[in-house]
Amino acid sequence: MSEGDSVGESIHGKPSVVAAFFTRIGQVYQSWLDKSTPFYAVRWAATLLLTAVYMIRVYILQGWYIVTYALGIYHLNLFIAFLSPKVDPSLLDEDEGPSLPTKQNEEFRPFIRRLPEFKFWHSATKGIVIAMICTFFDAFNVPVFWPILVMYFIMLFCITMKRQIKHMIKYRYLPFTHGKRTYKGKDDTGKTFAS
Question: Domain locations in the chain?
């Protein structure tokens, strides 16, 4: 490769000013994401506030229903991925790979999500921000009869959640467990303990 052929480099092999600027912006953004990781309640509260601002904007402007519908479908897909296990038990044979415990006496295996909580929050927030930006452009304000979109979304939500719940029941997993169950009991000496 000759000088200046790689992306973001000038003729003399040094990073260009534009590439250095966007690299720095990306680093600052990643730093803020890393700092916000442990504060899940604050992150979700900010996302809900952003959602409320978006909904108020759509209500006041009386438009952009297609954008809102697309945002709802995107959030539904994210939610389904959040509820689904990383390894789909329906695709595994009995002896192949890790499986979810199906009996009380089996070893505890934590539920591993296909879409982790942080990525769910980050993607949902980015979707809301992009939808908010779309409301500033009239090209995305397609005239539609919004009650049909609402009814279709409700039907789609119900059908999708019914299918997901059936899958959860069939393969006996619950995506909201927070650790191994603990039982109080007595040891050999008669002392009460919690394991």
Answer: 40-88+112-175
